[in-house]
Structure formats: structure tokens, C-alpha cells
Amino acid sequence: MVAISNAFITGVAAIAGLSPQAGGQCSLANYKPAFPANQTTLVAPAQAPKFLGLAFGVQNYTCSDASTYTAAGAVAELMDASCIASKPQFATIQNTAFTFWNLSQAPSIQTIIGQLQGLSGAPVLGQHYFVTNPVTGTGISPKWDFTSAKFKGNANAFFVGAVKANLPSPTDPTKNVAWLDVGKVQGALADEVFRYDTVGGQPPSSCTPGTALSVKYVSKYALYGGSI
Ligand SMILES: *[C@@H]1O[C@H](CO)[C@@H](O)[C@H](O)[C@H]1NC(C)=O
Ligand SMILES: *[C@@H]1O[C@H](CO)[C@@H](O)[C@H](O)[C@H]1NC(C)=O
Ligand SMILES: *[C@@H]1O[C@H](CO)[C@@H](O)[C@H](O)[C@H]1NC(C)=O
Fold first, then answer.
1. Which pick of 26, 64, 178, 222 has the fewest CB atoms within 10 Å?
2. Is 78 helix (H, G, I), strand (E, B) or coil?
3. What is the C-alpha separation between 171 and 138, in angstroms, rounded?
4. Statement: residue 1 has pLDDT above 60
5. Closest residue CA from atom 8 of ligand 2
6. Residue 162 Cα, ligand 2 centroid: separation in angstroms?
């Protein structure tokens, strides 16, 4: 067991009420993501999600010759939020979580992922990152990988997807990355993943060609279907 005294981890665990508990997951039978009214871009499935993650991480960018940032993947840690989903404060927990994650002394996302991996009982679902597009062999695809946490040792516990629908953040699209509906390409973990309640992650509007940037973000991820 690794001792984690870091203010960030303590803060996120405390605000989220994500105290480690044996078995971890609570029922999501009554949980439905709240998407904006008057739009049909993102529609929550009728059934309940299988997994609900509160994620913190970074969105990566590289600066193009046109001096604008181009998306270049992301890395995030998904904490199991199923046991707090029914609490009123869950509706805005992303703002509180972002405040902690945005603390200047917060360690890198890779450090946090490594530390949490060594912490027995930590309510980690898994990680989100990008892999080479498995269909075309070029470009990158988003992956959600629970094989080293929630389903340790189960090589099928992943989902590689492709974005089906994209809704600009209803709060502040210049600061917060878009809300997404992601369809399945590979894996048994889920058939569909939604990213929503995003905070942060957007890059500045201009940059110096050739440079790269990681921008902190927080979001919720709801995973539906799957055969795990
Ligand atoms: C949705 O549209 C209706 C009718 O135009 C309007 O009265 C309502 O305020 C809208 N709701 C939101 C959340 O925009
Ligand atoms: C994104 O940036 C982080 C560091 O900020 C790095 O650890 C990670 O490997 C990068 N991921 C990609 C896909 O570039
Ligand atoms: C995040 O922290 C930086 C300072 O480290 C600050 O400049 C920035 O405004 C913060 N972002 C938000 C959205 O609070």
C-alpha cells in the first residue's frame, strides 16, 4: 500500500465522498445523465448506465502551422462515482473536482494514476487514453480501459470508440471541452459512452507552431451496455 498524502488526492476523495469501500459499486438503476433540454444531439439511453466515472486528467494538443491547437489525445483517471450519483451535490461535483485538480501543486496525471494503482481499495474504475485507430491504422481513437483496476486481469474490459455526436459545452464552450456520444468500435466493456458535465480542457485560441500543451479537465463518463 502506497501512502498518499497529496492534497489533491485527499481533496478529490473527500469532496466526492469516494471513500474506498469493498466491492465499490452501488446501483445506478435510478441514474440518468441530465443533458440540456431542447436538443437531440445527446439523448440518454432508456436503460441505466453500467458504470459512472468522475474523471480528471488532461486533454493534449499540438500546435499546427496555422498557429492553432489540434487535439492530440488525452489521459484521464476514472473514479467510481456510482455511490454518490444520487446525492444532490453530484450535479455540480465537477466544479469542485476541477478546483482541486487545477491546484498548481497537483502532480501529473501519470503520477496520480500510478499512485492510485498502488492504493488498495481506491475506487478507481480505470483509465481513459488514446490508441492508434484499430480500423484504419492511422490517427488515434479514444479508449476506456478498466483492465488494471475495476476488472483487473480481464483483458476484455476495455472500450475503443468513435465519436457519434458532439455538443458544445452548454456552460462555457471556450473553456470546457464538448459533451460527446461515443459509439463502440472494439471491446466488451460498453456499447456506448457519454462524456458530459465537462470543466476545462480547452486550449488557448492561438499558439506557436510545433509546441504542445496539456490542459487539465474534469468530466463525467457514463458507460452503457457491454458484456462484462
Ligand atoms: C425549450 O424550448 C421551449 C419552447 O421554445 C422554451 O419555453 C424553454 O424555455 C426551452 N428550455 C430550455 C432549457 O432552453
Ligand atoms: C498527454 O500528455 C501527458 C502529459 O501531460 C502525457 O503523460 C500523455 O502521454 C500524453 N498523451 C498523449 C496521447 O499524447
Ligand atoms: C487554474 O489555475 C490557474 C493557476 O494555476 C489559473 O490561472 C486558472 O484561472 C485556473 N482555472 C480555472 C478555470 O479556475
1. 64
2. strand
3. 33
4. no
5. 75
6. 19
Strands 179-186, 212-224: pairing is: unpaired
**pLDDT band, residue 122 (cuts 50/70/90):** confident
Question: Would you say the CB of residue 34 lies under 6 angstroms from ligand 1?
Answer: no
One-letter amino acid of 206: S
The per-residue pLDDT for 11 is: 65
Residue with grid cell 467510481, as numbered in its chain? 80
- 153-188 burial, b at 16+ Cβ within 10 Å, e below that, comes to eeeebbbbbeeebebebeeeeeebbbbbbbebebbb
Radius of gyration of the chain (CA): 17
**What local confidence, expressed as pLDDT, does residue 27 receive?**
92
Residue 17 scores a pLDDT above 70: no
Residue 181 has pLDDT above 60, yes or no: yes
What is the distance between the alpha carbons of residues 13 and 9, in angstroms, rounded to a whole number?
Answer: 6
**55 beta partners:** 78, 219
Q: Which three cell numbers stand for residue 217?
A: 479537465
pLDDT at 3 > cutoff 50: no
Residue ranges of alpha helices (H) inside the chain are 7-16, 93-101, 109-117
Flag whether pLDDT at 105 surpasses 50.
yes
CA 3 vs CA 118, 120, 122, 157, 226: distances in Å: 9, 10, 12, 28, 34
Pocket test for ligand 1, best of 35, 38, 39, 42 (most atoms within 8 A of CB): 38
